[in-house]
Sequence to fold (483 residues):
Amino acid sequence: MKNRSIAAVASLSLAVTAVGAHATLIPPTFGFSLHSAGSTINGSAGDFGSTTNVSPTEWFFQGSCSAMTGTSMNWAYLVDPDPFITGSLSITNESLIERSYIVDFSLGITPPMSGSLVSGQVSGSLTDSNGSGGALLTSTAGGAVYTALADDVFVRSLMSNASHAVSNQYGTTSFSGGSFGQPTAIAGPAINNTIGIRYAFTLSAGDSVSFSSIFVANVPAPGVMALGFFAGAFTRSGRRRMR
Amino acid sequence: MKVNIKNFAVIFTGTTALLTSASFAGFTSSGCVYSVSSSAGSGSQTNTTVDLSPTAWMNSGGWVTAGSTASVTWANNVWGWNPSTNTGFMNANIVIRNNTGAAQDFVFTAAMNGTAAGNQTLASGSIGGQFVNGSGSLGQVTSSGPLWSALIDGSTVNSQLPNALFFAAPFQIISLGNFNFANIAVSNSIGSQTAIRFSLRISAGGEASFTSAFSFQTIPGPASIAILALTPLFGSRRRR
Fold:
């Protein structure tokens, strides 16, 4: 009887383990949308390329989208629903006129986070790909080129009022778009469903830009939360003393 | 209308020479081919080509090992001849990722097949890029020799980033800089192909991405230039 109980518990345990292991093999939702010239294309990044599980929690999405006339876009992102997004996006404006783009990548996260510590960074390069004698990348309407999002809400942005130019034929310039939360992550919001990166920019005709980006959100360690609580308490008592 | 035999000879010679000159100056192409080799293993390759014109193509493709332990993604345009700039060119947006637990070597080549003849070929080009360290350890991009090379008929005509050595802290990005060259005399003709080559080593969990361009312009031979010089002379004779 005892042996039968042990066997039953072991079987149940194995089954639970198997279900758990299987769960980690389901890729997270990782969607994209490309908006330009009044048209929008969106979908699951996996439907426009490949999705591969490269570690127990990490997934690699590689793909391209040239369905929108006059635009060629490809990407390679490593994501973890725990969560982080890191990788590269390249776009070539194949049209004969300057174009504005908004490109969103959004990752479903598990589990939800009641608070977060966030960090991010962006860097890139711009090339006069058609030999017109120059290339220009600007942030659209004075906004930011890179915006980190949590639940589709603004967290931090980088490359505000950006303008990068290439002035020689077939030339390239590279740019560092800055960072936040590095080396020490900064306090971020509670995150329930998604983190994302938005790129919003205007690109000259016939030219190419590549962005490499990171957005990481971590759950604050209990010690950090306690420190935050005590820091708040200390600040309050300090203010009281000043009065 | 009376046709002057002498003038007719000049017109005929001039037209023939100009047509020859035009065909010499152009780069006839049959598209682009790609090759990837990596210490991470063999991979499968895909590429989609869209015809932009009879001599220009837009390509989008990738190479990936089984299990995506390593991958290369590219978007690339090739123009056999661009009449607005009098050049042929190729560009490349490329992302190389190492998802393995060890450093891996990669060599990626995009080659435009074609020929061009002229008195001299001038080359221009550039490369810029960045490196993402997606691991919890110090990341590296290195090269033994040039990281980037422009080739004509298999011979290097320009190279950049010799013996590259870049470091990135965990989960950080570094710029690899930008490098340009313009109108350097490289050869008298293009016999079979022009190419861009990336050769680099990427640490575990790292990703390097680049934008790059390589253009070439053939200069018409002296005979064509002489005919061009004769054209106004012919005009002045007619007016007389």
In short: Chain B touches chain A through 58 residues (CB under 8 Å). Residues 8-25, 233-240 of chain B have pLDDT under 50 and may be disordered.
